[in-house]
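Letters spell out the chain; backbone shape is given numerically. Take this protein:
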Amino acid sequence: MYRRHNFLAMSESPSIAWTPNGAVRLLDQTLLPGETRYVEIDTIDGMIEAIRALRVRGAPLIGVAAAMGLAAAAQAQLTPGVSPGLTPEWFEHEAERLAACRPTAVNLRWAVERMRIVARSAFAGGPTGVAARLRVEAQRIWDEDAAMCRAIGEAGAQLIPSGATILTHCNTGRLATGGIGTAFGVILTAHQQGKGIDVIACEARPLRQGARLTSWELAEANIPARVIVDSAAAAVMARGDVDLVILGADRIAANGDTANKIGTYQLAVLARAHDIPFYVAAPRSTFDVTIPSGDEIPIEERPAAEVETAKGVSVYNPAFDVTPAELITAIVTDRGVILAPYLASVASL
């Protein structure tokens, strides 16, 4: 079910909301910027489709959406006649299906595991109480993400010199999180502080999130900006047009290795070659200290159909790459800025 809404009338988090009947309303990001349309979801199948199709995207927002989707689907299972109803077995099965639908962004499984813990302790009180407690926990996850975004913005803005030209990659703003954004939150906060910044946004694959989404958010915030194709990054750095790079992350290993949208690694290499600071901004929910390094981060490969090519030519279409910690100047978190060496600091989160 789709409904049209005015993006400009929305609050700090325009990408997601509860409906009056307890479903989740998602902004369909595949249609932006040309069309603003919302989809209402109250099933796990519906949320899995939305996540896989990138109707909802961005590691932090995927986690929020998954939590809210579990709560909405649990509530729907209480409808008379719905089989099998809200049972522990149903919940565990559906939670695992949801957690596995995109492998790289750790926020998804992190949020689902939080919901599992709540459900397991709540089932003793009956299914009605489980649904209510899941709704509370999902809202808490959303509120925490919004607060972490604000903290990241404030911490990261201290790294931004007045008059800086900032290069960013993919989309990390209100369309990708439950709040003002991670890397985009830093950019927005610096802009609101009157630092006179301007932004270069890479086009970004697989669905041109930078050209379609980041440019839209920059325009909405009245931040001076321009878009470049990904392959132009070296040229603009060589001309001296970039003062720093800041972008987000989908998973950060215990040693600081970082998985992010494909093209991030080459930007880190280019930044090092041109002596440009390279910053990553991410909330605590993006850190995965259970894996020692980026070598163990699973990399999602997107459908070949997303890349136009001649018939009969194969396509390699990874959605993410891994940037080694030694190429990262600092990681900006909701608890402050982490400088190298990363291992002890990241693990302490």
Remarks:
- The chain has a mean pLDDT of 92.
- The first helix runs from residue 44 to 52.
